[in-house]
Amino acid sequence: MKKQTLVIASLFTLVLLFVGGSYFYKNADHSIVGEKTSALMRPHAYVIGNPNAKTTIVEFFDPACETCKSFYPFVKNILKQNPDKIKLVLRYAPFHTDSYYVVAMIEAARLQGKYLEALEVIYKYQDKWASHGTPNIALIWGFLPEVGIDIEKLRDDMKKPEIDALIKQDIADTKTLGVKATPEFFVNGKPLVKFGFKELQALIESEL
Questions:
Q1: Is the CB of residue 139 less than 8 Å from the CB of residue 128?
Q2: Which of 32, 48, 182, 189 would give a disulfide with 65, using CB separation of 3.0 to 4.6 Å?
């Protein structure tokens, strides 16, 4: 009887520790502070929305990431609903094979004033050029003229050292911040602790 009571008491203690640990982790302040703050925001990052908005969403993404593609319209819709209150800062985490070159394409398109156009057409055809097992970024060249991008200029601009430096800075920042998967979101410096659409929306609304 004593042994049974001891087992029950041990299980009860473990449950309490788990629940308590989860509660404190969920409610703890995980905000990015100190020297990591500069790694979160860089002057070169592309910004969507009101640059003076009170609420800042920082998203680290990979253009070959399917989840990033699915979150893109979701976040844009939240921006549309709060045009003066939120801005989205886009950062790169090119973890997939050859994603570095896709990011270079997007940045080179930015020099033509076609950043969002390039990003959106790349997402639009992601299932064709980034299919699992057989990624082929060469296919992207055939999609970019659809949004009026000058391909020859793009090829030249992709070689610019400032684009290479920008991408390397973002990669370095993912390591500083511990970003290991995409998309990774931070809202006013607070990371999305539990990943999901509802959880992201709740975090954003808590910062409005």
A1: yes
A2: 182
